[in-house]
Amino acid sequence: MNDDAIKNLFDNYNPRLSSDSRFMAQLEWKIRAVDHLETMMQSRRKTRRTSLIISAAAGFIFGMISTLCYPLLAEWINEISVSTSWHLLAAMLSAYGDVAICSSICLVTITSMAAAYEITSARILRKARCGSWRERTFPEVFP
Question: Residue 62 and residue 60: Cα distance in Å, rounded?
Answer without folding.
Answer: 6
